């Protein structure tokens, strides 16, 4: 596998790879299958912030499953170490990690997905190799990257934000809408600019015009 970093943008095909994980070997695209996927990286095993994050995602896994979404983590350690770490995660957070954690001690996948931290010279392993940052990728069933977020190693993620964006993307794919600032599931949405007012009368009977370019509507959605 080449360690040359590709240019990944929204809409890029998520690079495929084979790797060992805490749940055994996988081929990434096969693992995704017809689902959505959340790929998220961690600097290292047995670290404080990562332990809280993996516990939080493990607790929320049923919510992601309702949204036809698979979770998969990555950390710069071995699969054997991941499995030992999972015991600590359950002990600390009360959550059992059921999704796989990719073993990436040589940073091959980290480089493939540009997960390396170049701003923090202290973010190194015991061999002096750069550790991964807290990257998040939302990938749809066609294997396209729909969201990229990157946090420094020192800052834990907001799991509710990952679900919020996933809801926005999935609802936007099914309906001709976008979502406004701080939107959460159940709030009013924005009628997509490509929808004329005449179409909107049929698609969104309760829509209202705030400005010619801003039209809001309630959107009835079933529970995920």
UniProtKB/TrEMBL annotation:
Please name the InterPro entries in this protein's record. Answer: AhpC/TSA, Peroxiredoxin_AhpC-typ, Peroxiredoxin_C, PRX_1cys, Thioredoxin-like_sf, Thioredoxin_domain
Q: Which GO terms describe its molecular function?
A: peroxiredoxin activity
Question: In its keyword annotation, does this UniProt entry include Oxidoreductase?
Answer: yes
- Which superkingdom is the protein from? Eukaryota
Q: Which residues form a coiled coil?
A: none
Which residues does the entry assign to the active site, renumbered to this chain? Answer: 50 (cysteine sulfenic acid (-soh) intermediate)
Q: Name one Pfam family in it.
A: 1-cysPrx_C
Q: Which GO terms describe its biological process?
A: cell redox homeostasis; cellular response to oxidative stress
Keywords (alphabetical) are: Antioxidant, Oxidoreductase, Peroxidase, Redox-active center
Output the Gene Ontology cellular-component terms.
cytosol; mitochondrion
UniProt key word Oxidoreductase:
yes
Thioredoxin domain boundaries: 8-171
Q: Which family does it belong to?
A: Belongs to the peroxiredoxin family. Prx6 subfamily.
Q: PANTHER family, alphabetically? A: MCG48959-RELATED, PEROXIREDOXIN-6
What is this protein's function?
Answer: Thiol-specific peroxidase that catalyzes the reduction of hydrogen peroxide and organic hydroperoxides to water and alcohols, respectively.
- Protein name, UniProt field: Thioredoxin domain-containing protein
Q: Which organism is it from?
A: Diutina rugosa
